[in-house]
Amino acid sequence: MIIQNSMYVRFIGIIVLATIGVIFMISSLPISDTCKCEKSAERDIQHEQFHRSFKELSSTNKHKLAILVPFRDRFDELLRFAPHISAFLNRQQVSFHIFVLNQNDRFRFNRASLINAGFLLVKDQYDYIAMHDVDLLPLNNNLKYEYPENGPLHISGPEFHPKYHYATFIGGILLLKVEHYQLLNGMSNKYWGWGLEDDEFYVRIKEAGLEVNRPRNITTGPENTFL
User: What pathway does the UniProt record associate with this protein (predicted)?
Assistant: First the structure.
């Protein structure tokens, strides 16, 4: 009987200690006034707003622009780019859609191949393209993403680009009619890594007899035309 009572007491003691341990664990957890479901709802709203930014508001512009963004592993910049360029072009009432061309392999980056692939995707539904770096955000509202009727339109000219200033530079943001890109047979696929594909494309433009146009009457410079 004594043994049974002793075992019973030990059993009760174990239960009490276990209960105290659970209470201590619960009391030591961080307390938050914000429900996780609320945070999840906020993320859902941000996610929806981000995806909405890939397409324009209603526009009366008869020409449709495909923005081709060569991309790999630059998600923070993309999160800034999409809402910024959408608001910028909506103010100009440009009919546009953003296409993020993601290179998902271990090879060196091939910007030209991504743009060529994007062009093949959009050429039958859009009238002109913008070859657009994801880290170049226009600030000056006088930079018009208008239909490049008279030849390639280089938005980020050397007098405006924050880094590159040589006369034949056509990188950053370049607009072309679909017909002109086809005339040039696209860009060369042989350039892996950063650089040179734009310089070679400039040669193609000149050999085809096209003139590169750039924005005029822009009062900003390399330090404040782009973000």
Answer: Protein modification; protein glycosylation
The sign of the dihedral angle between the CA atoms of 167, 170, 176, 182 is: positive
Quote the CA–CA distance of 64 and 94 in Å, as a whole number: 8
Distance separating alpha carbons of residues 213 and 161, to the nearest angstrom: 15
Residue 197 and residue 190: Cα distance in Å, rounded? 8
For 57-208, give the CATH class: alpha beta
Nearest to 138 by CA among 67, 201, 58, 45: 67
User: Residue 22: pLDDT band by 50, 70, 90 thresholds?
Assistant: very low
What confidence tens digit (pLDDT) does each residue in 154-163 have? 999 999 999 9
What is the β-pairing status of strands 128-132 and 173-177?
A: antiparallel
CA gap 115, 111 in Å, rounded: 6
Q: Which helix (H) or strand (E) holds 196?
A: none
